Amino acid sequence: MRFALTAAIALLTALPAYANTWNGKWDVNAALSKITFSASQSGQAFTGTLPAFKADITLDTANLAAASIKVVMPLAGMSTNSSTRDADLPKADWFDMSNHPEAVFESSKITALDENGKYQAEGTLTIRGVSQPLTLPFDLTLEDEMALATASVKFNRMPFGVGKGWPESSGVSENVTVDVVISAKRAEGAEATSAPVAPESQPILVTPEAQ
Predict the structure, then answer these.
(1) Under a CB-based contact definition with an 8 Å cutoff, are residues 154 and 169 in contact?
(2) Which of 54, 153, 198, 211 shows a CA-CA span of 20 to 30 A to 11?
(3) What angle do CA 61, 66, 119 make, to 5 degrees?
(4) Mean pLDDT, the chain, as a whole number?
(5) Considering Cα of 143, then 191, then 120, then 182, what sign does the dihedral take?
(6) Interior CA angle at 50 toward 169 and 178, to 5°?
(7) How far apart are CA 75 and CA 52, in angstroms?
(8) Which of 10, 8, 18 is nearest to 198 (CA)?
(9) What is the reported pTM?
(10) C-beta separation of 39 from 172 below 8 A
């Protein structure tokens, strides 16, 4: 009987199929996202904004072991609504932007704090080429393909050498609060891993030689 070809085709249909699974990547919506910071000078509170940032986010709440966040923040164009203060910030005593044009936060571990959307990202913040550990708590809301993350963290600028000649006693607050809002959508067309999908049970046909 001549049945080898038919049997082989039928056997292939019985092998596990492979389906793409999402790899946790997110595309940030820049128009709906922002990073701001606040401090005080001479007893007067002020708020500053960063003109742009780039975030590389891999975050699947079902697989936090593989999660990572990296945010690169160009500092040029930073604004605090004070022309005098804004002119000083790029200088060597403050952010030294000519030598260190970016600040970077990169996570090393992301964990869930509860079952209500509270998480924290442990990582490193680098400013002026100086890296310090930073834990960033954030709230995460997921709806269909969309995500909204909000975070607020306070840290001391002095270990980074930012405004090192102006300590708290000079009237400039050493503690700075950074607020983050990130709106994102599941990335489309991102490289995905493959997972086996159980095939439907199908008989292996044996076709006798045609008479």
Answers:
(1) no
(2) 211
(3) 40
(4) 85
(5) negative
(6) 50
(7) 8
(8) 18
(9) 0.79
(10) yes
